[in-house]
Amino acid sequence: xxxxxxxxxLARMCAPVAVxxxxxxxxxxxxxxxxxxxxxxxxxxxxYTDVDTVLExxxxxxxxxxxxxxxxxxxxxxxxxxxxPVHPSPEALVFAQNKLAMRERLTSMAIxxxxxxxxxxxxxxxxxxxxxxxxxxxKTPTGGYDGKGVLLVSSPQEAAxxxxxxxxxxxxxxxxxxxxxxxxxxxxxxxxxxxxxxVHTVQTDGICTEVLAPAPxxxxxxxxxxTEAALRIAGDLGVTGVMAMEIFELPEGGFVVNELAMRPHNxxxxxxxxxxxxxxxxxxRAVLDLPLGSPRPREQWTVMTNVLGGQDEDLxxxxxxxxxxxxxxxxxxxxxxxxxxxxxxxxNLTGTDLADLRERGRHAADxxxxxxxx
Length: 374
Ligand code: ADP
Hints:
The chain has 374 residues and is an alpha+beta fold. It contains 12 helices and 16 strands. This is N5-carboxyaminoimidazole ribonucleotide synthase.
């Protein structure tokens, strides 16, 4: 049995794969309504920050993995001490939990990163801004997602609230990038690794709204170097399972790494319909140390469009219309309560005409969100 800590949409999307491979899942959910808890028979509800709860959950599991990066290190180490395999390990996961630790480690590996520093005081921030220019991007080292925990500041005064906590913050140069890309790889405990093509993650207001796979007009040399960097990071850090490396493509050529995630990732949802092996299947194969599947794309292009919550609570009439309008459309909903702006699903389209796929994906997402009515 594979135990997944966190019952969100990522654990949920592992469920169909687990059914097909006859793998039993158990998910530790935060609430009875958790996206995965609704579809996985074994779905105890409990606090993933509580050691006893997590150890009790893990007792019947053959391997433990995660839906998110927020399980505290002491809980992870207590799990490892029981002898159950934990993938990724706490030693690897720390670099996805803590952006300061990640910057330090990647810099020591000579992986290109934005200029950065750890700052705890207004003086340190002023010195960083004086050296690298304003505005400066400030980040909380832990707990950020979808742009929360990221602040663009033009002076130390603007960061006063954040600095008041006295905790070290990550200061980064504001990178003037061409576009945001992501490299998705998987690595098994035996060291086998596989990489999907580099994708373009289109962002709107700090949220990924669309993924184009592969990234259009990407210079082959950049794709090769970024993929090599992601595989080297996964190997050197001992990552097991799926890892996403988010990068910024630079106008002068090359890239810098933004951040790492060690789990199936939004930038890989296109693989469910666009690749021989989806990231969810690959993650389960990797954490069970099974041979990995082919990451080869099935079609020239796949476009993934995220669906955000809109006004409509009941999506059934909406997707009924979309199914009739576009029989090629693949709809994936997460069973989450609809709240404006919340990621509640995504749609995938594959084919040869990228502009057409984007237009149809956008329409379907807008229709599900209720912003267009026909
Ligand atoms: P989160 O952990 O919330 O996803 P990220 O570190 O990915 O936060 O940052 C969110 C977004 O902010 C990025 O997708 C990017 O658009 C922007 N961003 C982050 N770091 C920088 C930077 N150093 N320079 C310019 N933009 C940045």
